[in-house]
What does this fold into?
Amino acid sequence: MKLLPGLALAIIVLAFAGLMVWRQFDDLADRRVGAKLAAFQVSEPARFDPALVAQLPEPARRYFEFVIKPGTPLHTVAEIEMTGRFSLGTQDSPNYLPMAARQTLAGPAGFVWRMSAQRGLLRISGSDALSHGGNWTRFWLIGLLPVARVSGTADHRRSAFGRAVAEAAFWTPAALLPGPGITWTQVDATTARVAVRYDGMEQSVDVTIAADGRPVRIALQRWSDANADKVFRLQLFGGLLSEFRDFDGFRLPTRVEAGNQFGTAAYFPFYLADVTRIAFPSGAGR
It folds into this structure.
């Protein structure tokens, strides 16, 4: 019986060590995916010429001429740092937590978003990712307890692809220039729709464009289970873009809010981001 306290302590220590190793493997996977996505950057990209978009519908042409200055190298991969608020709650009780996050975005190929949110003793950290190497949502409580782990499913992959295309529309617009798998159409005088087909998936995103060409709103039908039934289905998603700044020839929003049921009374912006830095990693010779 005297051995029981020591045995219990050993089990606790081993469990703690196992969780720490598990978390380290998650962090390693994040870094590997980030490196793979950064390699999508072309080492010597072409430069933007308005002639590239001259044949697009008028709202789309206006959008590209605002977000990319003539002569800008057409980088399609961005590294983004942000602060803001992230909700674990509902429209009636948002329960926002202050957050900080770093993201590598190579839309439409994928992204990895690494986030930490904390209020008092409550701390959530982890990542969302989509790449050829896999897709996942992995979050930890106080860095030790896994509280959300979804990976590898077709439903999650399809949902993550919707995010990749939507974010490309405002943070890596060069990735959505007309070409194979990318089609722009006009919805109305102020809205352009981009349809992206990539790796067996397809996603359309509507971009609302102000008179000066800035994209101020995005909306899409996203594959999601963020509903009362917890069933994956197409449902409204979107958000608002503002506070544009220049980043190496791109004019990009630094204030983004987004959530489910966008455009309806049920809209709840669970994601409120203030971008502090956007950079374009050097190409890997592709």
Remarks:
- The chain has one domain: 3-279.
